[in-house]
Specification:
Elements lengths: L1 E4 L7 H20 L5 H13 L5 H33 L6 H29 L3 E4 L2 H8 L5
Antiparallel strand pairs: 1-2
Helix pairs in contact: 1-2, 1-3, 1-4, 2-3, 3-4, 3-5
Length: about 140
């Protein structure tokens, strides 16, 4: 799921810290606004916008963190509103709902673990390339501004 790749240069201490913080931002937002899926996405987006003119290493990792939060946002939003419909409307819990929530928990737990691992490794200056998001990030993020 996560590959270690080489970067053209060794990032400095300041760059590694900022890139690592892009992953930590989503974890902090998760703790602050757990029931609302938009909180994680907004926190990561704000951090991305604040660092979009930073070095390539920082921009690349901010973009990868944002893309992972963006896809989780849609999955979590669907689960959130489905649960609200069950609680406050005539909807009932069925096997499809249980399977979706189980899948949602597995995806969120996997992303949580990958985010912690990435924050630690990127803080050390290691360039991590997530499956799917890494390729998409490389396509989006340009080396020069």
């Amino acid at each position: 799921m996560i590959q270690i790749q080489t970067f053209d240069y060794k990032p400095g201490e300041h760059e590694a810290e900022k890139a690592s913080n892009s992953y930590l931002m989503s974890l902090i937002a998760l703790i602050a606004g757990l029931p609302l899926p938009i909180i994680n996405l907004l926190a990561t987006l704000i951090f991305f916008l604040g660092n979009r003119k930073g070095t390539y290493f920082v921009r690349w990792h901010c973009t990868q963190a944002l893309l992972s939060q963006f896809s989780l946002f849609f999955m979590n939003t669907a689960g959130f509103w489905w649960t609200i419909a069950i609680l406050f409307k005539d909807s009932t819990v069925n096997n499809i709902y249980i399977a979706y929530i189980f899948t949602l928990v597995i995806f969120n737990l996997t992303e949580f673990i990958a985010t912690i691992y990435s924050a630690i490794q990127v803080r050390k200056g290691v360039h991590l390339h997530w499956w799917f998001y890494g390729g998409l990030t490389s396509a989006i993020c340009k080396k020069t501004l």
